[in-house]
Amino acid sequence: xxxxxxxxxxxxxxxxxxxxxxxxxxxxxxxxxxxxxxxxxxxxxxxxxxxxxxxxxxxxxxxxxxxxxxxxxxxxxxxxxxxxxxxxxxxxxxxxxxxxxxxxxxxxxxxxxxxxxxxxxxxxxxxxxxxxxxxxxxxxxxxxxxxxxxxxxxxxxxxxxxxxxxxxxxxxxxxxxxxxxxxxxxxxxxxxxxxxxxxxxxxxxxxxxxxxxxxxxxxxxxxxxxxxxxxxxxxxxxxxxxxxxxxxxxxxxxxxxxxxxxxxxxxxxxxxxxxxxxxxxxxxxxxxxxxxxxxxxxxxxxxxxxxxxxxxxxxxxxxxxxxxxxxxxxxxxxxxxxxxxxxxxxxxxxxxxxxxxxxxxxxxxxxxxxxxxxxxxxxxxxxxxxxxxxxxxxxxxxxxxxxxxxxxxxxxxxxxxxxxxxxxxxxxxxxxxxxxxxxxxxxxxxxxxxxxxxxxxxxxxxxxxxxxxxxxxxxxxxxxxxxxxxxxxxxxxxxxxxxxxxxxxxxxxxxxxxxxxxxxxxxxxxxxxxxxxxxxxxxxxxxxxxxxxxxxxxxxxxxxxxxxxxxxxxxxxxxxxxxxxxxxxxxxxxxxxxxxxxxxxxxxxxxxxxxxxxxxxxxxxxxxxxxxxxxxxxxxxxxxxxxxxxxxxxxxxxxxxxxxxxxxxxxxxxxxxxxxxxxxxxxxxxxxxxxxxxxxxx
Length: 698
Ligand code: ADP
Ligand code: MG
What we know:
Elements: H1 15-26, H2 31-35, E1 41-44, E2 61-73, E3 80-86, E4 91-96, H3 100-106, E5 112-117, E6 120-122, E7 125-129, E8 132-135, H4 139-144, E9 147-150, H5 155-159, H6 164-177, H7 188-194, H8 199-207, H9 212-241, H10 255-264, H11 271-285, E10 291-296, H12 302-315, E11 319-323, H13 327-340, E12 348-351, H14 357-368, E13 374-377, E14 391-397, H15 404-411, E15 419-424, H16 430-436, E16 441-445, E17 456-461, H17 465-477, E18 481-485, H18 493-510, E19 516-519, H19 525-536, E20 542-545, E21 558-563, H20 571-578, E22 589-594, H21 600-611, H22 615-626, H23 652-668, H24 678-687
Parallel strand pairs: 4-7, 10-15, 10-16, 11-13, 11-14, 12-13, 14-15, 17-22, 18-20, 18-21, 19-20, 21-22
Antiparallel strand pairs: 1-9, 2-3, 2-5, 3-4, 5-8, 6-7
Helix pairs in contact: 8-9, 9-23, 9-24, 10-12, 11-12, 20-22, 21-22
The structure holds adenosine-5'-diphosphate and magnesium ion.
Magnesium ion binds at residues 302-303, 397, 552.
């Protein structure tokens, strides 16, 4: 029997009407779809409670006993049926407000039942509203073993008697008519490598666990299976596109790298920087094109890694480029890289939207003739006219501002694509990165350079402006600079700008002796850059801004970051903003200003910020609180995370294993043509038949 082809309405107990509802509400159309609908929780039905021990705050109770009497009470809305139920240790009331007739026809007094429900306190007494009642010796109970699965259902389903129990019953019916074990969808090798139980055993136990142990194994197998096919899909796609082309081999560590390392490097590299450099070196001396995502918290020293990678390319006779999302950032990179490499005889140039015509022409010329070693710039680098002699390595700073299409344009500037290093400070949790950027390898700098003073974070209510302003003044008097940031949310743009402008006026009035500048996204690029420069150069003491400052500006003298309406920002975004301070030697501060009326969730979020300065910890916490679809910087990707059983938050290890195995398989058989891999190929086609194309997400 091909379960995928069996219409669900033909399953005993379903029929036309219920079949239609299963299809509408859960997209369950076939026998196979039903098997793929897993319980969301399990309850140990072997544990019986005693009536006299029931407390109001118990999540559920399970009782074995008899109904002593039924009594109908009330009229209209308050009409209800009450059954007195006893297990010999006490008496408790079971209450129904609906389906009274059905209950009376089905259940009898003085017969033994297992009752299951959630205690509820009413008039100083505890009762059980709408409990489940089971006969003691039902087949289902035997089959179900001690652990019973609970299935999510919708209001509409419940109205048609398709509650969790009914789903379980249907599942039971389905298993009873199965003539043979379910078809395996992994090959023997993968099963052995992942040490998982068979697909058949997993599906049986996910619905009807024979024991806690088997349930755990079933969950593990199904999580693995889910993540494995996602990874197989992404990696296969990545191979077909990116990896088709071989990369330049960069075998030499030579003059420039060594001179820099021995003479110019102003500090010892952190261990994390060394490790990442080794990873990059491994990539570029193989014949494969590097496509690497470098994650590192703000201030972790990504620029140094980028520079040293470029030096390797230069040592092998290639040109390099570094692209930043804003002119200010590009300029900052240009200045710091020029300073770092002073005396080495490197030709480094800057190209941005505001480069003068004559300069541009000269740069274009020098690029083609191969005289330029490093070109740093903005989107201007992507223009058609910018052509290289031999671009060997491209660095892209702040990944999420550039799309894949733009990455591809950089590659096309060469006969062969250059090695690409994409840097981001958005601390995407590793599991998410693997799923989102499946075509990129990931390196992580998980260590800050020594000697940084951790930023002190303070949560303050907005009805305490006086003390906040006093602290700001104190820092200004010490000669420091201050950021004040306002949120901006699309739907209420008008009022947001009002907030920003009022804030600007208020701050200007409060600190008349200091210069205040304002920056927001609605300004023309030139105005914006001019206002930013005022702050960067130290002419302005306070900058009032929207989140446009989020991306990488470096003003070491700024020591205070005030974030207004902090409750309206995502945690990762707050962390990014906070990273703008704490770049100098001084103690820095971040003040999160919120309304004093806060919900539980917001309070928790502020607490996380106050207690942690680790971007990865914060990103994980954010992911747990909000779910991955909402994570900063990934909203545009739609909702690719319809995972059935695996969790990107908790199953990082399973994901890694799945990825490793998938990668090994593709290494040997990229097209999945070998006999033993055909089963994987056909499952892959089935899984992704109607789903999003995962590989196109990054
Ligand atoms: P980000 O990762 O945010 O781009 P940067 O590359 O701008 O960080 O580095 C932040 C600061 O830390 C820079 O001033 C840089 O010179 C300094 N830095 C980088 N690596 C080290 C190191 N190993 N030891 C000390 N300081 C370092
Ligand atoms: Mg940076």
